[in-house]
Write a structure and sequence with these properties.
- Strand 3, helix 4 (about 90-100) and strand 4 (about 100-105) form a beta-alpha-beta unit.
- This protein is an alpha/beta fold.
- Residues about 210-215 have low confidence and may be disordered.
- A 7-stranded mixed β-sheet has the order 5-4-3-6-7-8-9. A two-stranded antiparallel sheet has the order 1-2.
- Helix content is about 30%, strand content about 30%.
- It contains 6 helices and 9 strands.
Length: about 220
């Protein structure tokens, strides 16, 4: 099977059945080459329905989870995005294609370097990767139109909500294994938030939420 057929199968067999029907998202999954963001040792898993290991014990999210989060935050061309946990840079690249600029905060220097290299190699120029602990958000550049948290949190820190613009959307996976819920929170006013549960899942904890902060943010 050739690589484009594998990509097509991923979209048709994994992602569409998960209610990802936005054609702009599906088209983008053809454009941004997932295999270019997967560590060499795991290239064969680039389109598999699984989380892919990354250095430091973290993982790339399952492709259908990435696609669903991308669809549901609905980034627009003029919007600024905060991504907490950059991983290999793949989701940052997808968000960057949709929005104006992505600030990605990564607690691991090794992953920061990996993501920056992957993004550069794939011609993505509107992502800034910051080294730091983003578990409580990132004040530099706040407030943001969209915030995406790429690992699970036991509960949602209030500081993250405060960094959303009115009308902004935050996607995060909340809870304890094995029962977690992906939630989309929309800021409706200075003190108003609307929360919608998107799906149930079980993913690894956000790395920066499991260790004490060693950086200023």
């Amino acid at each position: 099977m050739n690589i484009e057929q594998a990509r097509f199968n991923m979209i048709e067999q994994q992602i569409r059945p998960w209610d990802v029907l936005d054609t702009s998202v599906l088209d983008l999954l053809m454009v941004v080459k997932r295999e270019n963001f997967v560590p060499a040792a795991h290239k064969a898993l680039a389109f598999a329905d699984t989380e892919i290991p990354l250095p430091g014990g973290v993982s790339m999210l399952n492709p259908k989870v990435e696609a669903r989060l991308l669809q549901d935050v609905n980034v627009k061309k003029h919007e600024s995005v905060l991504e907490i946990g950059v991983g290999s840079g793949y989701l940052a690249a997808l968000l960057a294609h949709k929005g104006r600029h992505v600030t990605a905060v990564e607690v691991s220097a090794e992953l920061k370097a990996l993501a920056e290299q992957n993004l550069a190699d794939n011609g993505v120029t509107n992502v800034t990767v910051e080294l730091g602990n983003g578990a409580q958000g990132w004040t530099n550049g706040a407030p943001f139109d969209v915030i995406v948290v790429t690992g699970s949190l036991p509960e949602l820190p209030p500081a993250l909500l405060q960094q959303l613009k009115v009308g902004g959307r935050l996607a995060a996976i909340i809870g304890q294994s094995p029962a977690m819920k992906a939630q989309l929170i929309t800021r409706t006013g200075e003190a108003g938030y609307d929360t919608r549960t998107l799906f149930e899942t079980d993913v690894k904890a956000l790395a920066s939420a499991t260790q004490p902060s060693q950086f200023k943010f």
